[in-house]
Amino acid sequence: MRTLVEYAAGVVTLVLLTLAVMVGVLATDRTVLRPRHRVLLQPVHSALSVLAVGAVVLHVVSMIAKGYASTLDVLLPFLGGRSFEVGMGALALYLMVSVFWTGLIRARFAGSGRPWLWRVLHSGAYAAWPIALYHGFEAGRAAAAWVELSYFACALAVVATLLARLAGLFARKRGARPTRYVRLLDESTQLRSTPTVRPDRGRTARTPDVDSFDDGDYWAQLRGTAT
Amino acid sequence: MTRSALPPVTHLATPRLTAGLDEHGWLDAATHRRVHGPLRPLPTDVLVQLVDDIQLTGRGGAGFPFGRKLRAVLESARRQQRPPVVTVNGSESEPLSFKDKVLLTRAPHLVLDGAALAADAIGASEIVVAVTDDEGAERSLRAALAERQMPVPTSVHVVPHRIVSGQSGALVNGINGKKHIPPATSQRTSDAGVKSHPTLLSNAETYAQLAIAARRGPYGYTSLGLVDEPGTVLLTVTGAAARPAVMEVPTGTPLWRVLELCHAPADAAVLTGGYEGTWINPESALRATISRAGFAAVGGTLGPGVIAPIGPDTCPLGELAQVVHFLAAGSTGQCGPCRLGLPDLARSVDLIVAGTAPTALVEAAVEAVRGRGACGHPDATARMSASALMVFAADIATHGARHGCGRPVKGQLLVPPGPADTNARLSVDWSRCDGHGLCAHVLPELVSLDANGFPALPQSPVPVWLHGQARRAVRMCPALALRLTTEGHHAA
Questions:
Q1: What is the mean pLDDT of residues B204-217?
Q2: In terms of residue numbers, what domain contains B331?
Q3: What does pLDDT average to over chain B?
Q4: Where are the domains of chain A?
Q5: Can you give B315-368 as a three-state secondary structure string?
Q6: Same domain, B324 and B362
Q7: S-S: A13 plus which of A55, A108, B107, B372, CB 3.0-4.6 Å?
Q8: Cross-chain CB nearest to B441 (options A28, A39, A107)
Q9: Neighbouring C-alpha atoms within 13 Å toward the C-beta of B426
Q10: B212 and B158, same structural domain?
């Protein structure tokens, strides 16, 4: 059991952290996802984050137990006398835990005047993740090529989603979203240009031919009141 | 509730239930005997005959014939070979009604007399008196029990003050140690009520009327009031009445006399029967006479005897909205049509007040809850709202044309402020909100999206059963724009 933890906890942390970051950034999308998808993704993001922090704690404890690092290395990154890679691991740990904490207290920022502060703090995830990846590749066992490629692909995906999100944000800031009024205008112009639902034609077809009736005065009068 | 917080007691004609209350704050055993005279227990058949002769009906609102209830319990007890239990419902959950609280707080011996009579006659094994948790009634009952002998063990049970906890099934649930909510499948209390015994359950005033009738006899009792509904009725006159009171009147008294005596504004629309009653217009109020049939003839409900006129200086639709929101928040949330339908109804009334929706919206919301749910709560709320649509048709038209009527909402219907946690409200920081719409998905009961995708939030408090969902919506808001506040404080 202990060896299993020593062997796997680090890798599991990296995978969970990757998934947490990806689901987190995915949950902000509003071009493809409907509100119900985003509402589902949020608890998934939280669950992955909890698991990732749990795994990283196991990883750190098992590494200290095995003697690969000391408590001092964890408390004072880069100053404990270990390699630069281990120091980066400790740094990633701190970032992870603080980002996790901002996630826990997120609702508090709904009342405060500084939602941007929360965003900045939670964006620490974008720093923690690459640092953790670096630590994983350099300090741990040599990874297979496909593993490295997968992480690279994940990173690309996150960067792409992030760019899309930023682009969408700026587009909205410029008021590019069509309002209900604009959409109504669109619909009405479509209606007018579609021949099948033209209201005029239906009415003329049902209206009796006025001049074919004998009682011309009556119909003329009716026509007069109608117009 | 202390004695001084209760409305004053008055009467028209000879006082019966309220005899002695103009002289004494609390009728102790000796005063009670002096005012009302001695009481002898009655044999079963004599009591049943008496109840039939005076046509006693339940005074809690439904008006079920007491004689039929009595027979059902006797029959059930004989079949099951178990002694019945007598239960006095003094919980008076209708927020506008005070007559039971007045009786229990000031003349408890009369109610206990009635319960003792019934227990003696049907061979009950125990008496349970249920009261709300506002102290006055409970203290008075315990003091009264301490100075008198009851024929069987008598206990006082305290129920939480909620609109549905007075429902008989909910009351029995509570006495049996379960949650004070209406049972999902209705069972007749006469078959299996308190501790699964056959249970005679009726309202406090009903038992007091029984104690009066036992002393006066059928002829003496029916000497006042109408032939079909003899005797007197306890009314709670409240709302915009300048002199609110609990008033004992003979049946058949014109409603306008009662309104006049309590200094109600002229030409007032009247909410009859309380929050779960019906509205009548000023013309009907002039024609109505005090009795179940007299109120029914003009489209009103006597119910537990609540008469709540509202003045011309308040916005009637705003008053209505407050009541509907209160009733919606009173749902226990166990039945879907009530849990989702009542907030819908309240929201549609809000839109009527704002003048942004047609009455058809309220009518649709009314239809969605009518006749559904485990108890009568959704149905009664629907009926009250539907009657308001008719009585206030002109006001609704004004609101539709001018987006309001210019009158303030004065809270004349005394919608009680909920406990601290029911004052939680959702609010949105509009400068942050970007119309993501997650809140409407998490909290469809309260939040709806406008055509541009931005949330429309009710001004009413978040019902207790939605607090968890509301906090979830706050957590989920991607823009950190939504918040839940309690009386100006930050709650989540």
A1: 94
A2: 316-402
A3: 86
A4: 2-173, 180-226
A5: CHHHHHHHHHHHHHHCCCCCCHHHHHHHHHHHHHHHHHHHCCCCHHHHHHHHHH
A6: yes
A7: A55
A8: A39
A9: 28
A10: yes
Nearest to A122 by CA among B470, B480, B482, B483: B480
pLDDT tens for each residue of B307-344? 999 988 888 998 898 899 888 887 877 788 888 888 88
B99-106 helix and B204-221 helix, angle to the nearest 10 degrees: 80
What values do phi and psi take at A112, rounded to 5?
-75, 170
| Partner residue facing B474 (CB), from A28, A107, A115 | A107
pLDDT at B198: 87
Confidence of residue A32 (pLDDT cuts 50, 70, 90): confident
**In a domain? residue B413:** no
CB of A47 less than 8 A from some CB of B: no
Identify the CATH number of the domain in which residue B302 sits.
3.10.20.600
Among candidates B240, B455, B253, which has minimal Cα distance to B347? B455
* A179 vs B contacts (CB less than 8 Å): 452
Assess contact for B447 and B457: CB atoms under 8 A.
yes
Using the predicted structure, report yes or no on whether residue A202 has a pLDDT greater than 50.
Answer: no
Answer for the pair B481, B451: CB distance below 8 angstroms, yes or no.
no
CATH assignment at residue B454 = 3.30.70.20
B476 touching A, CB under 8 A? yes
For residue B372, tell me if it sits in a domain. Answer: yes
Residue B22 and residue B112 in one domain:
yes
**In-domain check, residue B415:** no
Name the strands in the sheet holding B482-486, side by side, starting at the edge strand that comes first in the sequence: B424-428, B482-486, B489-490
- Does B176 or B151 have the greater pLDDT score? B151
Residues of chain B above pLDDT 90, percent: 42
Task: Select from B342, B375, B402 the last residue of a domain.
Answer: B402
Q: Between B464 and A129, where is the model more confident? A: A129
A57 CA to chain B: closest CA distance, Å? 26
A104-119 confidence digits (pLDDT tens): 988 888 877 688 888 8
User: Structural domain tally of chain B?
Assistant: 4
Alpha-carbon gap, residue A166 to B153, rounded angstroms? 75
pLDDT value, residue B3: 61
**CB-CB under 8 Å, A28 with B481:** no
Lowest mean pLDDT among A159-173, B2-16, B257-271, B410-424: B410-424
Here the tokens at position B128 are 């349970």
Residues of B whose CB is below 8 A from A110: 474, 477, 480-483, 492
B164 pLDDT exceeds 70? Answer: no
Does residue B458 share a domain with residue B338? Answer: no
Mean pLDDT, rounded, for B110-119:
94
Q: For every residue of A95-141, which 3-state class applies, written as one string?
A: HHHHHHHHHHCHHHHHHCCCHHHHHHHHCHHHHHHHHHHHHHHHHCC
Please check the confidence at residue A31 and state whether its pLDDT lies above 50. yes
Distance CA A179, CA A184 (A): 9
Contact A180 B482 (CB under 8 A): no
- B467: closest CA of chain A, how far (Å): 14
Looking at the partner chain, which of A35, A110, A111 has a beta carbon nearest the beta carbon of B438?
A35
Per the CB < 8 A criterion, the answer to whether B491 and B484 are in contact is yes
- Asked if B191 and B296 sit in the same domain, the reply is no
Say what the pLDDT of residue B341 is. 87
* B310, B334, B353 - which closes a domain: B310
Kindly state whether residue B411 falls inside one of the protein's structural domains: no
> Do B374 and B246 reside in the same domain of the chain?
no
Distance between CA B173 and CA B289 in Å, rounded?
Answer: 37
Asked whether the predicted pLDDT for residue B38 surpasses 70, the reply is yes
